[in-house]
Amino acid sequence: MMKTALNSFTGIRDLGAAFAARKLSAVELAQQLLQDIESQQSLNAFVDTNADLTLDQARSAEQIKHDNPDNLLAGVPLAHKDIFVTQGWRTTAGSKMLQNYTSPFNATVVDSLKNVGTVCLGKVSCDEFAMGSGNEHCVFGPVLNPWDPDVVPGGSSGGSAAAVAAGLVMAATGTDTGGSVRQPAALCGISGIKPTYGMVSRFGMIAYASSLDQAGVLARSADDLALLLDSISVFDERDATSIQKCHGQANAPGRILSHYQGLLDSADPRQPLKGLRIGVPREYFDDGLDAGVGQAVQEGIDQLVGLGATRVDISLPNTRLCIPAYYVIAPAEASSNLARYDAVRYGHRTQHYKDLEQMQARSRTEGFGDEVRKRIMIGTYVLSHGYYDAYYLQAQKLRRMIAQDFNQALTEQCDLILGPVSPTVAPAIGSQTSDPTAEWLGDIYTLGVNLAGLPAMSIPCGFAKGHRGQDLPVGLQLIGHYFDEGRLLAVATQFQQHTDWHQRRPGVSQ
């Protein structure tokens, strides 16, 4: 078998053409990628692989492709964030608490992608229970960024982003509670989307903060994201937060692709974004934004204006309140969700205890890492008697104000909101561990979207200097209205048809 670098394909459609022309088979590609994953263990992106299961799925994919040659996803290699439960691969949530857990069933997202013929290469690392912005809070150690092994890949879906950027898979699933799809996508130079809250089932997704968690996908391009997201967007009666209908549209496969393709087909080739109003919040370009990142984002916005869009300067006046609101609500929900890991019903159990109370206390102390214990304590405090009204209730009121800012802007002033994803490029590994709040401040531009439940995505828009003067990727964030993922993806695809930032590759897999 001739070795074919996955990064040599421009995307899923290109790979599908190679399958259709019989230049490559799904089984051959899976075998080669399993070897690549083995040879790139230093990245620490994968936490579990199972060659037998992967090759079984690849053989099934070839049959699916044979029966339906138009199926573009059959044979596409991907990986799942270690927060989605999977049969056959361990699901640890990056924690000692679940270090040896294997689920008896698949998450809905996993089944949806398996049913259309994608091939799972394994599970990829994440911050413990998805709590982190650098993929450093994981029992298996930090994941390295393929662009520079000295910097973080972003978190908490850092393993997903690193695996895609390194060419080990074509795409990967992720979850986004406060930016955990968009931020690692930006820091690794790939594309990632977090859809409308409730659009993708959370069944089988280990909970961090239930009113904020949303499954998403990471891939090379917006076109790949459209194909993948459409296949997992479906109402699921097993998830109480799953949306059945929004703005008169049923939540079902085909909706996103129809909207997306319709917008691309009807665009004027000379001015494809003519008539589109893009809102640029002045609060997103304050002193906290790195100058190089700001310049790359501004140039990305100028590129969209050059394609016919109209820039509208807007204000999201409550942006500064996103961090305090989020870091009250998310830990509160986390403290409740993680109470189930009591060493009786779920999770790690200590070997040294005298009674039930000591057994539970020691098990949770041993099983949870520092960041998780910190958030549990914060959450328990803000929910405690006498403090609920002062903290949690006030945070929920701030959340409403933040959502109203977005809703007013997207209803009255613009069609999309644009800005940076992260204030800086990827920081050095370990540089934020001495300051417990530095990591949280890096989420300032992403948290509001989760508090409002809106869809948003990150696409590569340039490079800026890192801590050693090296060039590192920068992401441009696009925020849309509820159920408007088709428009987001179409605008991103127009941008990527006129730029080549998404085609840049790190040298690790060459």
Automatic annotation (TrEMBL):
InterPro entries: Amidase (IPR000120), Amidase_CS (IPR020556), Amidase_dom (IPR023631), AS_sf (IPR036928), GatA (IPR004412). GO terms for cellular component: glutamyl-tRNA(Gln) amidotransferase complex. Transmembrane segments: none annotated. GO terms for biological process: translation. Keywords: ATP-binding, Ligase, Nucleotide-binding, Protein biosynthesis, Transferase. The keyword Metal-binding does not apply. Residues 29-489 form the Amidase domain. The active site is at residues 81, 156, 180. Its EC number is 6.3.5.7. GO terms for molecular function: ATP binding; glutaminyl-tRNA synthase (glutamine-hydrolyzing) activity; transferase activity. PROSITE patterns: AMIDASES. It catalyses: L-glutamyl-tRNA(Gln) + L-glutamine + ATP + H2O = L-glutaminyl-tRNA(Gln) + L-glutamate + ADP + phosphate + H(+). Heterotrimer of A, B and C subunits. Allows the formation of correctly charged Gln-tRNA(Gln) through the transamidation of misacylated Glu-tRNA(Gln) in organisms which lack glutaminyl-tRNA synthetase. The reaction takes place in the presence of glutamine and ATP through an activated gamma-phospho-Glu-tRNA(Gln). Belongs to the amidase family. GatA subfamily. This is Glutamyl-tRNA(Gln) amidotransferase subunit A. It comes from Orrella marina.
